[in-house]
Structures are given as C-alpha cells and as structure tokens.
Amino acid sequence: MLGSYDVIVVGLGHAGCEAALAASRLGLNVLGLTLDFDSIARMSCNPSIGGPGKSQLVRELDALGGEMGSAADECFIHARMLNSAKGPAVRAVRAQIDKDLYSRRMAAALRGQEGLDIAEAELEGLEIRSGKVTGAVVSGEKVACRALVLASGTYLGGTVYIGEEVHREGPEGFPASKLTPSLRDAGIKLMRFKTGTSPRVDASTIDYGKMELQPGEDLLYCFSNIKKPALRKQEDCWITYTNVASHKIVEDNIERAPIFSGLIKGIGPRYCPSIEAKVVRFKGKQRHQLFVEPITRGGAEMYLAGLATSLPKDVQEGILRTVPGLEKARITKYGYAIEYDCIEPSQLDHRLEFRNIEGFFSAGQANGSSGYEEAAVQGLVAGANAALSIKGEPPLVVGRDQAYIGVLIDDLVMKGTDEPYRMLTARAEYRLALRQENADFRLTREAIRTGLAGDGRIRAFERKVRMKDLLASGMENEAKELSASFDEGAWLLECARENLAMDRAYGGYIEKERRMAASFRKMEEKRIPADADYSRMYRLSTEAKDKLSERRPASIGEASRIPGMSPSDIAALIIHLRQEGKPDGDDI
Are both 504 and 478 inside the same structural domain? Predict the structure, then answer.
C-alpha cells in the first residue's frame, strides 16, 4: 500500500463505492479504504432502495454511469411502484434488497474495476500543504495522493445507544473513526447528528395471519435505464400497526430513551423519527404503521420498518408483545441509535470539494445527509470531480433544474442542514420535468461528456432516443423494426413509449416548468468574479457581506439561495457588480 495514488476514497459504503468507481472509470489510479471487506456497501439499516424522491436519485445515478441502479435490479427480492394512482411527478419504485447479495455484488464491481485497489485499513490523518491535500496517513503509513474523498458514513466519532447501554463504535460493531481531531485541525466545522434502526426478528416466530399482505409487482422498469430487470419470484412483505397498548409502554419508559434522557445530544432525522419520537410528537394518534420486510431471500430475519428505536432491550421486547402478529416474535438484533460527527456541508462547493482545501472532497452521510440513495449520488459526483479536477477537465455540476441530484447538492452546499437531510419530491421545484422515467434523457449526455458512460449505455441511450423520435413522428412500424434489431429493444421501445406519453399528457405543465427553469438558469449564468471583495460593497448589509465572503457564491443565483440573503441585498450586489463591470458571464 506504500506509494501514491491519484485519489484516495475513505470508506466504501454507498458513497465510497460510487466515488471509487467513478474516479477509476475516468482513468485514474484509486485506493479505496474500508475497515472490513465484508462491510462494503453494507445496508446497516433497512435494506431497501428507492421510494419518493429516492428512486429519482437512483435512476439519475444510473443515467450518469453509477453502479447502484444495476446492482439493485440484480439483487431486489420485492419491488413495488409507489403512488401509482397519483401523478407521474411523485410515482416511485421502491425495492427490498437482499442485503448480503448486494454487498457481494458491489464488492465484486470494485474488485473487477481496472485502476482501483481496495484495502482493509483506516485513515488516521490528512496531509495538507498550502491549502491542498497531498497525502494521508493510512494505518500508520504515509500514502501520497492528489485528491481525497471523505465518505466515512456514520463512523466519525460514532456512539451506539440501546437504552442505558453506550458503545463507542460505528454501525455493526465496527470501531468509530479517529479522524475527527484531524478534520478539526484542518479547520473543518463539524456537527453532531443521530440516526437509528429498527429491531430485526426471527421470521419463523411471526404470525403473518394477523397482518396485511403486501406482494411484489412485476414492473416495466426498476432502476436501470438500459436493462429490464429479470423476472423472479418475489418475497412477500407485510403491514401491521402499533396500538394504544404499544404507545403506553413507550410513554411509561420514555425517560429511559437516550433521546429524551439527555444521553444523545445529536439531531435526528425529522422524516424518519423513532417510535418514541412518534409517540411524543403525535400524542393523539392511535396507531403507527409498521412494515415487516425480508432482509435476504428466504432469510431467517425480518426488518420492522417504522419501529426505529433506541429504547432498552426489555422495552423493545414489551412493545412487540402488543403488536398484532409480533406477540411471539423473537428479536434477533435490537434496534439502536447511533450518534456521529459530520461536516457542515456549506463548507463545500457544488463539486463537493471543500472551498478552502484543494483536492479534498466529501460525500454521503459525512455531509449531513441520510439514506443510501442520497449518499450514492454524492459519491459519484465527488469521485468524478476529484478525477476531472486532476485531469484538468470541466467539472460535473448538475443544476436544480436538471435533476434531483442537483437539488440535493444545492440544498446542502447553499443552505446547509440542521438535521440529517432526506430527499423529498417536495424539495424539487421542477419535479414534473424531473420524473424517474426520463432520467436518462436528462443526464446521459452529461455522462457521455465526462466519460462516465460506457459503450453499452451510449448505444442503449441513442437507440431509445431514436425510437422516441420515430414514435413522435408517427412512424410506429419503423420504431418496431429498430427495436427488433437488438437485445432489450422491445423493452426500450416500451420505455420510450411511456416517456413520450408522459410528455404529451403533461406537456403544458412541463413547458411552464421549463420556462421557470430557463429563468432560474439565467440567474445561474450571471457569474460573480471569484475575487469579488464584498467588504467594499457598501450597499450590502453587514450580514450579507459576512455570508457572501464565507460562501463565495459563483453566481447571482447561488447568492440568492444563501439563507438570510434578502432581495434588497441581491439587488445591491447586482448594482455593485454592474458598477465595477466585472461579471464573468452574461452582463448583469
């Protein structure tokens, strides 16, 4: 492991896997670090991928040449289309994944990737010279690098809580990373967040007759844009509910919950609260829905989604005794909360590079986000930009009007976050144009430009575009002839047909969003000089001067999205730039 690499990726969870693959696929020499080979792409929480806002992310990741989409299609054991009775903007594929198979599948992709070495080692420190990353201390050895991607997940300063039990460790019992002091020494601002998991139970001890069956569905597509998911026998999922008796047990033991006893100081996810938080927050609610979902194909364990908790073990046992179908269920792994350090993401730019440390990138839960999908897309963007910066090529920056990926990154770097950030369809202003089924039409050309798209992806995309054009021109027979000339042709034709139907059915609304997006884009094109001296702009408020100096926005659009920037401050900024005659882009 001695020597040097172009890029070091720290952590091989969902962000790290995509970062390492993206950088190496762009021709660089990459080292990926993991604490344990068996933990690669591990799903420590519920092994599911997709859902509203998240399936759009995975489809976009796939369109950009990422790995999660194809891996999920190969490894899912249950899939459904959510919100199918609603409009296309909020429809979303959600799949339950065989967690063991998925981890092996991603590990195989890493091991088979040319230019990528993976090592079971720990990053202990950073080497930064003159504001630039030049190397790292890896398990006591110095390794030189030209860029480094931090994808440490929830391992930074990790602390696990189960009631009064406290363990200084990361997920799945692995030791917490010791990197926090090194980050602070580099001047990086950190936050303390919290997340949690639900109990797992022995599948053979569940009374499914008391639950509502939720079978899987054979869908036109899942997450890959270039290949139809293979048909397979799907595992069943089930729905049950907590009740007044369940809530009474929680209330009677609320002082033993670390989030209420004061043990946990970190901020938890608002949109995925623990059962104890639900009971306190929604006192009048008689029941809460639980999803009983398989962890592996034909496996012995089921995950109780919706029952995330850090309550003591005896309380978790007591709650299950009150839930229909779980009265005799045996817990195989107790739910827990984990508190961890993460960076304040406003220190990053849209490439996910630290604004004040050249060559240092960060992705995933280390940036204050939550979820496998949010982590994976950040990993691809950070890994690709680490490589592109070394190669001296234009970066991969996706706008809010182009993709959910753009919304996610823009929210993190411009607004920051005071809780684990979760992608929601409501966060996307242009969500009708950013549907899951048109992700490749929006982003594959960018994958081709950067070099992330392989030959197979390029061919599939070009054929799909051609078939859609033929269908739009009324040339049905010609489209069918083209589809019959190659593998997956019939499936790509159906996908093109659906995409065209959506465009036609919602054309008026989509055009309105496009006009809004064009206006947004104009603001993004009004560039601000990198050397702008905000302290001299006397029309700006003191608060605006401070915020602009800290964030260094690249455009008027970015400046307008900094929290606390008033319309009068933006107007004053435009006036100053006009007077100085220094805009880099279109005239302001």
Answer: yes
